[in-house]
Amino acid sequence: MIHSGTSPVRGFAQAIVSSKQQRHIRLSGLRCIANEVALNGWRMLWYTVNDFSLWRLIEYPWATRALQLKPGDWVLDIGSGTSTYPHMLAREGVHVVVVELDRQRVFWQQRKRQATARAGDGQLWPLVADATQLPIRDAVFPRISAISSLEHIPQDELVGREIGRVLTPGGIAVLTLPYTTQERTAFFADIKPFRRVAPNTFVQEGKAGSFFRFYTWADIYRVYLEPAQATLTAWCGFGRRVLNGMYHETKRNRYWRRFILKDWLLATVVHPLEERFDPSDPLYVMLALVKRHP
Ligand SMILES: C[S@@+](CC[C@H](N)C(=O)[O-])C[C@H]1O[C@@H](n2cnc3c(N)ncnc32)[C@H](O)[C@@H]1O
Question: Per the confidence metrics, is the pTM higher than 0.90?
Answer without folding.
Answer: yes
